Amino acid sequence: xxxxxxxxxxxxxxxxxxxxxxxYALDLRELAVARGVDYGKYRQGIGQxxxxxxxxxxxxxxxxxxxxxxxLEGVDxxxxxxxxxxTESGVDQSKAAAIYVHRLLDLPPxxxxxxxxxxxxxxxxxxxxxxxxxxxxxxxxxxxxxxxxARYGLGSAGEPTQGGGAVAMVVSTEAKLLxxxxxxxxxxSDVMDFWRPNYLDEALVDGKYSIxxxxxxxEQAWQxxxxxxxxxxxxxxRFCYHMPFTRMAEKAQSHLLRCAGKxxxxxxLLPMIQSAQRYNREVxxxxxxxxxxxxxxxxxxxxxxxxxxxxxxFSYGSGCMGAxxxxxxxxxxxxxxxxxxxxxxLNEREMLSIAEYEHFYQSRLCEDGTAQELEVYAGGAFxxxxxxxxxxxxxxxxxxxxxxxxxxxLSLGR
Length: 414
Ligand code: HMG
Description:
three-stranded mixed β-sheet, disordered N terminus
């Protein structure tokens, strides 16, 4: 095909998506009782019901590889020329998590593999870098993985907004789910609303301030999107937001309505974001993956056929950076989703007791180079097997299937 003919049929955007969430979770009703908080604060006030709890033998690499396994179904692995791993829960200061995933998924050696960081929104810059790469070499595809574990202190205000999970997507010129529009509105400002120094496992956060800065970043990124010639507010049928907790999407949507100069119409807002809130409400914050879990939730759970609908997306990363961009849902998108598999993942999780959740939370890997073999918990195809000489050992879970008798939770009184 001539290059001009080819470019007329090329659709740059998201070709496929896959999600992974840990097999264990905590019902926030249990947390409310344990912390002496009215459950209404969690359910209505912040909009969360369940939070995912990664097992001690999972980390961002295993969750990312498990999500990627699904995103790569039906995709020729030899076409993947770039793996970008977006995370703020990296496992090494030097080596990219993308390289572990590259090996676990047996991707071709003629491939570049990198890790990117800017709080929750590096996944969005990764998406735009992948699209720029498509423009240069249309036949080369990018595997983009967003994977994170949100951790705050036990008993802290941030605790009910924890969570974890991964979303992987193939970005190419053969988009089947969402074609991405070229215009993006950006905003960067040096603020300390949320951060995690290298020596801490838990994030530090000024919660109320972070919500204020999030809204400011949305306003500024939207204004930039408009200045750059983006679509009018009225042309959007759905919106997806970064969701540290799902109530944030409602706050963001009301704020955007005001920024776009729309008075009233609040009652029309919820249907525009509701389907995107579903998965996040049952998973919690998963930082870089949060916006894309919302997008996947919208595509898989919206009762309407969204073919041709324009979607506005806002990505926020503390510190801070925001990006507002848009895309159009492609006709026939439902044929390329994994809806039932994702629902099974969410519905078949094991609910932990508070003691089990705190045990998972407190479990630590050896930091002195001692060899360590990890117990086998329930999880996806890949797991962290242990450590040797300060090296992480990853492998397949098969042949180490969990039986009730072997369950490490038995030692906690199960
Ligand atoms: P808090 O102080 O525990 O909660 O912190 P609150 O007192 O503000 O209450 C929350 C809401 O519940 C309020 O509603 C209350 O009225 C309501 P609002 O005023 O917001 O409309 N409420 C009730 N509702 C019904 N029944 C009740 C009841 N009681 C109270 N009985 C906070 C909440 C979110 C600040 C805290 O959980 C936190 O610090 N979370 C972590 C930070 C965060 O998520 N920030 C969001 C923006 S920053 C961001 O998105 C970036 C991030 O993802 C990181 C990254 O980029 O890497 C975090």
